[in-house]
Specification:
heterodimer, A: 390 residues, alpha/beta, Peroxisomal Thiolase, Chain A, domain 1, 10-stranded mixed sheet, two-stranded antiparallel ribbon, 13 helices, 12 strands, globular, B: 156 residues, mainly beta, OB fold (Dihydrolipoamide Acetyltransferase, E2P), 2 domains, 5-stranded mixed barrel, 3-stranded antiparallel sheet, 1 helix, 34% strand, extended
């Protein structure tokens, strides 16, 4: 198997954009090819497009060839759209990685895009509510906020986690996103702002939730031995883990213990030959404040049930035990489903390059992870990236 | 250059909820092999399939056991009394077809050894707590399809 590196990234400004689905992907694609030396769209032989729900959000199927056409790419090895709800972007990276690692592909692009903002909120929610088992859970209005609301409620009930502790995640991530020019939300919030924001699905308030965001981001993957042809600062893919258990609410391993996350993490550390203590930056899936708290636990950064205390102690801040979401996370940057994992993978590359605001720069970072989850948190995916080849 | 005049054209002003944008499952035997579940509901019983080989109670109802892949399943009655495991309230962000019902509670109810999601009627969020007893409620749509919910038990 070939070692694989990421040599470039490009992204559209995330937010409620006055731009269509295909325009977002054109913006990210242009930025992507401007970020790389000696490589043009015609050199790309494989293309993977992370797109969760273009049929509903943009009323468009068959999006991979549409993206290829708009970016001037003529795939001649592998082309596909990848769909894994909120992890569609990391799914694209994994396909691209596999193609380059196996030798099937020389130069692969993984690009994600989602156009989330729609004038009719109910229509957008209808779209989102068919991610969970539509006939048995969606019908009971279990979309993202309700499933994470009951998760938060049980975590509070079982471990004594408080709404103030959850709010601290929002405070931290909005702080970092205020320093990130591509982020959707660039205003700081206080604990009080979070607790006084409108209730979405109790106990979750508006600022416990990520926003509905339009965006697109892409990366280029090549064999590591050739990476320096294209950039002075490649980033290396050194390990991964992915695990899915059950789907319908009844068949989740547990509401408050994300078993698939623990398994994905074990596999990620094993394949990367690292321990959790080696992680300098963790870009994790903070779709809701409770998610990040449970990720501290599931990734092993703290004991089970102690996630609230972990942020109270400042451990997930830069300078703490591990820098969690110095990009501002999904909470601050936004969550354009198909693009999210790719934005945050590119964030790791920018961190390694030192190409971020000083206020959110994790100096000397060598290892970063990008974690995404999907559905009722029944599926977790982790990529392990390093600054140097290992 | 000569200019072309814009012509107005007609479109229907409103389009009804499209057939496949409906959350309620298709229940008739011409659409599904578990139409028995909905017949049982119509008769007042919440049921599901149990594997005769590995004895697992399966939810949602199946035509094949996911554990041993046998088709040897039987219908069992889950009873009418459940207990609230977790819940929330839908205030903002209900999907099409449910907006008119807001605010309403939805949650996870423990019944017959399962944890199934369901709407919990006749109660506001503030008046519900984990562990509360809830009673099976069966609702019928104008097109005669049925579905189950739970209701906060009156005799608690």
């Amino acid at each position: 198997m070939n070692q694989v590196a990421i040599v470039a990234g490009g992204e559209a400004k995330a937010g409620r954009r006055a731009a269509s689905w295909r325009e977002l992907v054109q913006e990210a694609g242009k930025a992507l090819f401007e970020d790389v030396n000696n490589l043009a769209p015609k050199d790309v032989d494989s293309l993977f497009v992370g797109a969760a729900q273009p049929e509903r959000f943009a009323f468009q199927s068959y999006v991979a060839p549409l993206v290829a056409e708009h970016l001037g790419i003529i795939p001649r090895k592998v082309i596909a759209r990848t769909e894994l709800a909120c992890v569609s972007g990391q799914a694209a990276i994994r396909y691209a990685w596999n193609c380059v690692a196996s030798g099937m592909s020389d130069i692969a692009v993984a690009i994600g895009v989602e156009k989330m903002y729609q004038p009719d909120m109910a229509e957008a929610q209808t779209t989102m509510t068919c991610v969970l088992d539509r006939e048995w859970d969606g019908i009971n209005c279990f979309s993202a906020p309700p499933i994470f609301a009951v998760t938060a409620q049980r975590h509070m009930y079982e471990f004594g986690t408080t709404q103030e502790q959850m709010a601290l995640v929002s405070v931290k991530n909005h702080h970092y996103s205020s320093l990130n020019p591509i982020a959707h939300l660039r205003k700081e919030v206080t604990i009080e702002d979070v607790l006084k924001s409108p209730v979405v699905a109790p106990p979750l308030h508006l600022f416990d939730c990520c926003p509905m965001t339009d965006g697109s981001a892409g990366i280029i993957l090549v064999r590591a031995e050739e990476a320096k042809k294209y950039t002075d600062t490649p980033m290396h893919l050194i390990g991964s883990g992915q695990c899915a258990i059950g789907n319908a609410v009844n068949n989740l391993a547990s509401l408050t213990d994300w078993v698939p996350l623990r398994r994905a993490a074990e596999e990620a550390w094993r394949t990367a030959k690292i321990s959790k203590d080696d992680v300098d930056i963790a870009e994790v899936h903070d779709c809701f404040t409770i998610s990040e708290i449970m990720e501290y636990e599931g990734l092993g950064f703290c004991e089970k049930g102690r996630g609230g205390k972990f942020i109270e102690d400042g451990e997930p801040y830069i300078g703490g035990k591990v820098a969690v979401n110095p990009s501002g996370g999904i909470m601050g940057c936004g969550h354009p489903l198909g693009a999210t994992s790719i934005y945050h993978t590119f964030e790791l590359l920018k961190q390694f390059r030192g190409d971020v605001d000083q206020g959110r720069y994790v100096k000397g970072a060598e290892i970063g992870i990008q974690h995404s989850l999907s559905g009722a948190a029944n599926q977790h995916s982790i990529l392990v990236c390093s600054r140097e080849p290992r | 250059m000569s200019k072309v005049k814009v012509e107005k054209i007609k479109r229907p002003e409103k389009i009804g909820l499209p057939f496949m944008l409906d959350f309620y499952p298709l229940q008739d035997e011409k659409y599904t092999r578990i139409s028995q579940f909905f017949k049982n509901l119509k008769d007042g019983h919440l049921t599901t399939t149990k594997c005769e080989k590995c004895k697992e109670v399966l939810w949602p109802p199946r035509i094949i056991c996911p554990h041993c892949h046998t088709e040897d399943l039987k219908w069992i009655d889950l009873g009418t009394e459940g207990e609230v495991h977790a819940f929330t309230e839908i205030t903002l962000g209900a999907p099409l077809g449910f907006v008119e019902d807001t605010p309403f509670c939805t949650g996870i109810v423990q019944i017959g050894g399962l944890l199934i999601s369901a709407r919990i009627d006749d109660v506001r969020y503030e008046d519900l707590k984990i562990g509360d007893k809830v009673r099976l409620k069966i609702v019928e749509l104008p097109d005669q399809r049925v579905f189950f919910r739970f209701s906060k038990s009156k005799n608690e």
